[in-house]
Amino acid sequence: MGIIYFGILLCSIAFLIAVIYISIVLKRLADVTRSIGTTLKDVEKQFEYITPQLTDTIKEVHKTVDEMSGNIEATESLFDSVENVGQSINSINETYNSYKDKLTNEQFQKQLRPAIEGIKWGEAVSQIFKKWKKAN
Predict the structure, then answer these.
(1) 31 and 69 co-located in one domain
(2) Residue 9 and residue 67 in one domain
(3) Which residues span the domain enclosing 85?
(4) Residues 129, 96 share a domain
């Protein structure tokens, strides 16, 4: 009978050791949980501060995107105009080349002479005007 009591005593001691170990583990787990709770409270406070700023930033980005879209739409007409000017210049070049091919070199020089004279006289008038402006 003494051996049974001794076995029960050993089981009781083993159970006590297991209970002490589990309580230590649970205490550490409670400390970790408390630490996580504190950290999450700090994170929540930081999010309360950051969230309105993020909302304002998103609104500003939205406004900027809308403005950029409007600016891009405005420049489309500019590029269309540049394209039209380019087409006009190409058309003038084609007309000039076909006209030039029909003329002889001598006829071309005769027709070009009044334009060259006009440019020379215009330059002379411009120079005289600049000198007159400096003198006054």
Answers:
(1) yes
(2) yes
(3) 2-102
(4) no
Co-location of 98 and 113 in the same domain? no
pLDDT of the residue at 86:
83
- Tell me: do 54 and 92 sit in the same domain: yes
Average pLDDT in the 127-134 region? 86
What is the mean predicted confidence (pLDDT) over 67-82?
81
Question: Is the overall model pTM greater than 0.90, yes or no?
Answer: no
CB burial of residue 135 (10 Å; 0-12, 13-18, 19+): exposed
